[in-house]
Structures are given as structure tokens and as C-alpha cells.
Amino acid sequence: MTTTATAPAGVRVNELNGYIQTGKILEAMDEFYDQNVEMRENAGEPTVGLAANIEREKQFLANVKTFHAFEVKGVATAPDLSIVESEMRFTSQEDQEVVLQQVSVQRWQNGKIVSERFYYDSGV
């Protein structure tokens, strides 16, 4: 049995994607992200710290009326790195159907994400 601290990024990222696919996005933050995580959207400034990133995620989720799907298109991993190509579909609070295609690059230490950067078309 592999513990969280020794699980390679490939194992942990698949577990993370499973959480997201079932709508457990905030639960995933607690399980898979380091207390000092730095998350960045495209070329924006990073949001630092788990609490700040949970708040940022809550703000995003407040704009989601109905979550439809999170589909993983591809995953690449190294021992402390994962890259995920995904598509998220949801209906916004304004009843707009949104399809968000993105790539996230995650760096792992001790079974937790310490940095993550999202790349997507910001015109969506």
C-alpha cells in the first residue's frame, strides 16, 4: 500500500481527477493541496496558500449554477509532476453554457500539490 507521502504524482493525479469528476472540488483542495500551495491562472499573479486558494475556488463555484462534467483528455506524469488536459462543462448563474478547456501543470511534494498553473483561453 502506498501512503500519500510516497505516492507518485501519477497515482495522486488520478485520484484528484476522480474527486473533480464527482463534483468534490473543495474536498479535493483539502486532500491534494499543500498548505502553502501557489496557484496561477495563465500569466496572472499566483494565489498563495491553501486558504486563499479555497476562497478563490469558492468564488468560481459561486458562478456555477449546474456542474455537468469534468472530462480528462490526457495526463502526463513524472515522479513529482503531472500535466492534465481537461474539459469542464457547466451552466453559469446567468444560464450560459460554458465549456472550459484547459491544461494544468501540477508540481508535487510529499503527495501534495505545491504549485499549479492553469493554461486556457481567457476569452471563454
Task: Please give the structural blueprint.
Layout: H1 9-21, H2 25-32, E1 33-41, E2 47-48, H3 50-62, E3 64-78, E4 81-92, E5 97-109, E6 112-120
Parallel strand pairs: 1-6
Antiparallel strand pairs: 1-2, 3-4, 4-5, 5-6
Helix pairs in contact: 1-2, 2-3
Give Rg in angstroms.
14 Å
Structural class from helices and strands?
A: alpha+beta
Distance between the termini: 42 Å
How much β-strand is present in the residues? over 45%
Low-pLDDT runs of 5+ residues are none
Largest sheet: 6 strands, mixed
Mean pLDDT: 93
Categorize the overall geometry: globular
- The ordered H/E elements are HHEEHEEEE
* Number of β-strand runs: 6
Helix content: 25-40%
In which order are the strands of the major sheet placed?
Answer: 2-1-6-5-4-3
Can you count the helices?
3
Explain the overall architecture.
The protein has 124 residues and is of the alpha+beta class. It has a six-stranded mixed sheet. A hairpin with a 2-residue loop joins β5 and β6. The longest helix has 13 residues. It starts with 8 loop residues before the first helix and ends with a strand. The model has no long low-confidence stretch (mean pLDDT 93).
Features:
124 residues, alpha+beta, six-stranded mixed β-sheet, 6 strands, 27% helix
Quick overview of this protein structure:
By secondary structure, the protein is α+β, with helices and mostly antiparallel strands. It has helices spanning 9-21, 25-32, 50-62, and strands spanning 33-41, 47-48, 64-78, 81-92, 97-109, 112-120. A hairpin with a 4-residue loop joins strand 4 and strand 5 (97-109).
